[in-house]
Amino acid sequence: MSRFFKHLFLITRHRWHVFINGCHCGIGFHCLFHDLSKFHPTEFFRSVKNYTGKYSPVYAERLKDPYFSKICQHHTKRNKHHWEYWTDFFRGNIVVKAMPWKYATEYVCDMLSASFCYDPKGFNGATTYEYFEQRQGRYYLAPLTREYVRYCLKSFAENGFAGLKKKKTRKVYAELEAKLGTNAIISQLNPSPETLPEGK
Asked: Left (φ > 0), alpha (ψ -120 to 50) or beta: where does 91 sit?
């Protein structure tokens, strides 16, 4: 099978599993529209060219072009379930905004699906949580998003989708929002997130 059809099968299977995950989490209809930009020529054909089947074409492209990825640039600024969408720059600082509940939950569904699709035999309840914990320090996430995603993945590791019911996750998100706010600024000189006053 050519890389064209292998990649097409991969993204179709990935979208299907995101949809199923979204149904469990109460956002099934929303997840029907997940990752549609992957069919755009800018993303699709560059992804076919960088297809490995073992990890994301974005990473493969980064290895070829000293870490810059046009696929990633196109994808993350068109899909609100990616933390990159919620980043901005101001006076030498990186300003991050928390993903709204719906998109943060889609992000969780996305990570669970990707973990399964790239390694179905090695996937288990804790796989995605462990992956996130090992790498989350590299992501420019608002504290609210970070703690919400951590909660969801840990809940899935312990209880499966029974721990990700809509009523429960919305309550947890609201509690975290009241505690942490939605905006943060990350200094390029000091990578520790600092909460910004709302509205500034």
From this structure: left
How far is it between the farthest Cα atoms of the chain? 54
pTM for this one?
0.90
From CA 69, how far away is CA 58, in angstroms rounded? 6
- Inform me whether the pLDDT recorded for 197 exceeds 70: no
Tokens for 42, please give them. 């800018």
Mean pLDDT within 51-57: 88
Contact 97, 106 (CB under 8 A): no
Q: Could you state, in order of their start, the residue ranges of all structural domains in the chain?
A: 80-195
pLDDT band (50, 70, 90) for residue 66: confident
3 half-sphere exposure, CB direction, 13 A CA radius: 12
Residue 188 clears pLDDT 70, i.e. is over it: no
Are 17 and 105 spatial neighbours (Cβ–Cβ below 8 Å)? no
For the residues of 146-195, what is the DSSP string, one character each? HHHHHHHHHHHHHHGGGGG-HHHHHHHHHHHHHHH-SEEEEESS--S-EE
